[in-house]
Amino acid sequence: MDDMKDTIDAGFEQYGYILKGLERLMGLSLTFAGATREKIKANEIYFNGVFKYINEFMTPFWIALNSFSATERDKILRHTPEESMRDYLELLLFNIQVAQKGMNSSLNAMSDFHLNELSRAFSAWLNTMFEGEGEDMQGFVERQAKLLEKVVYEYPKAIDDIGPEYGFHFEQDGYEKLAETERFTVYQVLPRKGAKAIQRRKPILIIPPYVLGLNILGFLPADGKSYAHAYADQGIPTYVRALKDIETTPAVQTMTGEDDALDTRYFCEVIKKKHGLPVTLNGFCQGGFVALLDLLSGELDGLVDALITCVAPMDGTRSKALIEYLAHLPVRFRDLGYAVKELPNGNGVVDGKVMSWVYKLKSMEKEAPIYTLYRDLMMFDDPAGKDVKITRTAAALNHWLIYDRKDIPEAITKMSFDSYTIPITEDGTMPVKLFGKKLNLKRINEKGIHFLICYAQSDDLVDKDSALAPIDYIDAEVTVFPKGHGAIATTWSQSDSEYAIHKRLPNGMRGPVRFQLDLDEEVGKEETHG
């Protein structure tokens, strides 16, 4: 009887092992089936993402191709077949070099990402096979699918959704229209709710860039990140010059540098009359270059006594990366005409998307579509598996880069183009003329203009040497900020940031708002002693 009992017990024990084995096998099958289902989903999202990133990158190419064809139809008649063959061969080699940069950076990004994922996949396989703790195969693939969904679907939606809160909305409370011309409207930016500051008297007029518009200067006001509001919140009478819609305004389409200077003079006259003091002119990026030219023209004499430029390319020939890029481009194709498009009314304007695409090509190793896809994947991929939130700042920055690329008047673009192809002369003469007159930097000191130059330490768009070119010829105060091109208008416009622009900075320099506040205090002292 005991032997029979032992045999039965042994049979049940073996049966239990078999059941457990079958359960284990069934569990593995379900796990790998679930992983396969999620992998199919992840692959579909991945290829949608690849197509989306490539399509967004190539859209300006198709626009540029039309301008290229139109320009070449004229040029090819003025060159011999041998010259055209040589130029096109050089252009082909140039394109191959650019594509190679993009390919190398893309392969490196793919390698970094997938090698890391391969290590995770092996750990997940071990956990699945041997019931280890941590992520199993199904969890691993689900995480991949969620990551791809975030980058390909959720991130673009967040960028679109931030629109109503991003930038200036002059139709809302917080702004007052001051004056307008055929080309511009100037608005006063009022302090944000809760801002308590001494009311200053010395006014400032902010000149935004033409290419990427003015909204970067009113980035996220509700989050305390707005360059213009950083002035207004300190009680400074703050004005922003807004360009009218170029698509519907012929006067903008055909405007010249002289028009810019005359309109700026009119606005400064209105502002000075209102406040009784000369205006501080503050140009951001390309706006800084244009503001400098306006001031050197003499049209603003007696109206402007201070100039602030932020990340402004003052001598484009000192921008190493762009000049190196242009140096490899055949001379025949260094023509602004390749970016000009004709509007229905016959006016030609420079396509903003094409111009921004040129900067992407210059930095192809960081702007190639596959590289940017993997850059975004790594940005939202947390090693611990935590869900990385899409920040409002990241969404707003991308909203700026995607939706604020504006077409530009051809004559205005020509001024910037000349600055990137013709250096400032040894005696300080700029490469651009206004009203038929030469413009010399030394006029700044001769007229006693207070001049502050701000640049960004890690700016990959405007080189330090380009921003600081004026100090080779005149005296100017210099302030350097950490981070990149847009940081002054975003990160450092926040009042509690380390390099807040209304403070004296950790490096002992003055932020642009602090510079303006000190000018206002000097006015007060002069009036008291007077």
Which value, in Å, is the CA radius of gyration?
30 Å
Q: Which architecture name of the largest domain does CATH use? A: 3-Layer(aba) Sandwich
Which CATH first-tier class of the largest domain would you pick?
Alpha Beta
Number of domains: 2
Instruction: Give the tally of β-strands.
Output: 11
The major beta sheet can be summarized as: 8 strands, mixed
Strand arrangement across the biggest beta sheet: 1-2-4-3-5-6-10-11
CATH topology grouping of the largest domain: Rossmann fold
- In the predicted model, the low-confidence regions spanning at least 5 consecutive residues are none
- The coarse silhouette is globular
Overview of this structure, please?
It is a single chain. The protein has helices at 2-75, 81-130, 137-161, 227-232, 250-253, 257-275, 286-296, 320-328, 352-362, 364-367, 369-379, 392-403, 410-421, 443-446, 464-467, 512-529; strands at residues 175-180, 184-189, 204-207, 238-243, 279-284, 304-310, 340-342, 348-350, 408-409, 450-456, 477-481. It has an eight-stranded mixed sheet, sandwiched between helices. A three-stranded antiparallel sheet has the order 7-8-9. The protein starts with a helix and ends with a helix. Helix 2 (81-130) runs parallel beside helix 11. Helices cover 52% and strands 10% of the residues. The radius of gyration is 30 Å and the shape is globular. The model has no long low-confidence stretch (mean pLDDT 86). With 530 residues, it is α/β, with parallel strands linked by helices. The protein has two domains: 2-164, no CATH class; 174-315 and 432-529, Alpha/Beta hydrolase fold, catalytic domain (Rossmann fold, 3-Layer(aba) Sandwich), CATH 3.40.50.
